């Protein structure tokens, strides 16, 4: 049953496509936690019916308004009805489609609108330009990465003053080093990402073929949501390349903090990212990170730990960096992990995420 309690700070509507197993969903839940701590009442609004994280909302007592599936025209009408009924103090949007709709509605009804860019644009397409034009109607544009903020300022200079960078939230007291629960001495690598072209699974498989051919032993677990037909194509490629005994694909995991301690490193082979949650989380758990040298990744891991970054389009470079990781001894792994933990604690200072968002809600 939906609560009718009105928190002292007012209702904040949080629009996102769905509650699927994604980084944006996890970040919006973290934002909702912060809003509750500051006497606001967050209400999630979704319009696709993937409810992987619905139990997390229930556990926190956060209302979830799930709109019926329908045409885009009907979705606009449904958004309007929610806005009229809830009379929000402010509205956060964590998906591009909802941001565009809300900008249109913002022209007809006054409410504080904060749109969020959760990925990094690769080119100034017609759709990108249209979205940025609509952002003129928003109060603030939040980018979770420096890369996307710079892209916006280059391609939509009229948004420069209202664009702000707020990196993803990370609780370093929750994501922390732990004693591994394992007996195997085999080198282990973790991947947490969707099975989708952006995450570069096929090139990763080809790189692993080279790693195996060079005689390296490695156990890799990839946890993530599956998208067809790409998922099946990747499974077939794993068989063809002979790496099914090395790479193991699993469904998305909700409690990822329990996974990190059982691996020697995190790998994220994406061809582009916004501000990847998993890189910061792995660093906070004192793991080395092997990932693409794209977008904000080098800013996150730092130059001193950047020698494990690779060109995600270059299979040979990816293979070389994975093999470089395999050749590190336990002392070297521990030193990189400790440096990563120290950097994560500095980057994700307590209260920074909260204070930056609260500034956007000030009258």
| Structural class estimated from helices and strands | alpha/beta
Approximate strand percentage? 15-25%
The amount of helix comes to 25-40%
Number of helices: 13
| Topology as a string of helices (H) and strands (E) | EHEHEHEHEHEHEEHEHEEHEHEHHH
- Termini separation (Å)? 32 Å
Q: Unreliable segments (pLDDT under 50, ≥5 consecutive)?
A: 1-6
Principal-axis shape: globular
CA radius of gyration: 21 Å
User: Overall mean pLDDT score?
Assistant: 92
Largest sheet: 7 strands, parallel
Strand order of the largest sheet: 3-2-1-4-5-6-7
Number of strands: 13
Task: Describe the protein.
With 363 residues, the protein is of the alpha/beta class. The chain has helices at residues 23-37, 54-60, 72-86, 96-106, 126-134, 146-155, 201-213, 230-241, 277-284, 297-301, 315-326, 330-347, 352-360; strands spanning 10-15, 40-46, 63-66, 90-93, 112-117, 140-143, 163-165, 188-192, 219-223, 247-250, 265-268, 289-292, 309-310. The strands form two sheets. Strands 3-2-1-4-5-6-7 form a seven-stranded parallel sheet, sandwiched between helices. It has a six-stranded parallel sheet with strand order 10-9-8-11-12-13, sandwiched between helices. Strand 9, helix 8 and strand 10 (247-250) form a beta-alpha-beta unit. The longest helix has 18 residues, at 330-347. The protein is globular and about 65 Å long.
